[in-house]
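hey so u asked for the seq, here:
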Amino acid sequence: MAAPKKGRTASAQSKPGRSLALILIAIVALTGGMFAAGHTTPRLGIDLAGGTSITLTAVNEPGQPNAINKTNMDTAVEIMNSRVNGLGVSEAEVQTQGADNIIVNIPKGTNSKQARDQVGTTAKLYFRPVLQSAPSGGAAVPSTSPTGSPSGSASPSGSPSPSASTSASSGDEATPSASATTQGRAVTEALKADPTPSASASPSGSATPSATPSADTGSADSDLQAQFAALNCADPKQRAQAGKAAKPEDTTVACGQDGDVWTKFVLGPVAVDGTDVDKAQAVLDTQSGAGWKVTMDFSGSGGKKFAKITGDLATKASPQNEFAIVLDDKVISHPYVRTAISGGNAEISGNFTQTEAQSLSNMLSYGALPLTFKESSVTTVTAALGSEQLHAGLLAGAIGLALVVLYLVVYYRGLSLVACASLLVSAALTYVIMSLLGPAIGFALNLPAVCGAIVAIGITADSFIVYFERIRDEIREGRSLRPAVERAWPRARRTILVSDFVSFLAAAVLFIVTVGKVQGFAFTLGLTTLLDVVVVFFFTKPLMTILARTKFFGGGHKWSGLDPKGLGAKPPLRRTRRPAGPVAGPVDPKEA
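ran it, structure tokens below
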């Protein structure tokens, strides 16, 4: 039984290079991925990079005591995230905090007042009739490539969904075919339906409306027509300002997007308010094979208003037979109407993907939610202050690391080289992984996260100390270094795993029960604790096995930190041979 055991031990001792090669290959691969991705530094949080942090608290409207729930808050986060990124802000963060708070972190370089105006107001959802539409800032989408959103068709809920089609109809029918209507085709059919052109192609490629609109456009005044002609929805600044000052009863201009193409609209007064939508959900139509669609249920008064407007639109030609679903002054969908929709429910279909249908249903649902937000706090961190905090944190980490290294050198001498090499490997893995996690999961290195990394220095060094002391105990018992390294490992391994498990458990609990910046501390602590286990198992232990074969460490040099005499080791145990039986030979007369 002893022979196989010794064989396995000998095999494990003879191949420590495999573990070292494995961890070095992992470091090289991760570093290569970091440079290939172009993210060579960790992403900094708002407290280090500078920016604005806004805390919003949800408030129930009268008569709606249970409106604040996880579903509604998650939808609000989605809407606010779209708003703040609509400002051209990169790497902005919007997340819930607790049951009724939303934290919006906006990096430096953004107009904080504009951002506060964008995220601090309640989303407004309206249904407006489309009076005019034209491509803006790019060529129209070809009619042979219909888009699922924001185009579509509206029909009564429960009626057969229109069949999908990718070919354009050549007829002059007032009601478009079953295909999802594209912007270019909408304008074309409006021209066919009305002998007085409402738009003409400008030299720039975008449609410019005539100064004399037809009766179908609601006789929009010259100022509105001038706004429509000058509007370029491809320009983020113009897009953000389109329709801002409009009241629900006003005719206005707005922008929408079909795929990669922006479209501008002239919209009539609000016909149905978003609060009239009781429920909206994405549904997969398996019976007709039409794919994903969005169903809407209206309130009693909302159903009547929707029936009236759809009855009016069904008698008109495209694009005047479309109603625009407008959220935060942006057209998120503009389905056409085939017939009057009564009964208080309807559906929107037209080559939607699951993601598009769910996104539209969420936006429709949010417009009906009685949620408003009050601004609880606004914290502005300048880039200079963030830089000072980062330098202070890095200085504290450098001082802590220097003290640990000084202690290791004084107490462990040569063994301190092993500890320092292990710390460098751990630091390299931590840095590379943090750099990769920024673009991968949005991890941002904030000041608490820096503190977590500093605390991890002590946790990692503690693992080395446990192993070194176990080896020293074996040497004190009179064993040489090579067997001492192997005998000390099982006992040290158990202690290291238990210690790291407790640290990781504390980090996991802290990460779950806290929110915001404290999670950065917990995440970093948990990550470095896991890396500690990896480094000790795949680097520190194999390296000690190799060094035990050298003359400097294996021979117990006084500067190695493993000198038996300096450690007060017991002399090696020696066996004395005893005779197996009586000794044959002459007997001493005295003994006789």
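The longest helix spans residues 481-513. Residues 1-12, 139-152, 158-220 have pLDDT under 50 and may be disordered.
lmk if thats what u needed
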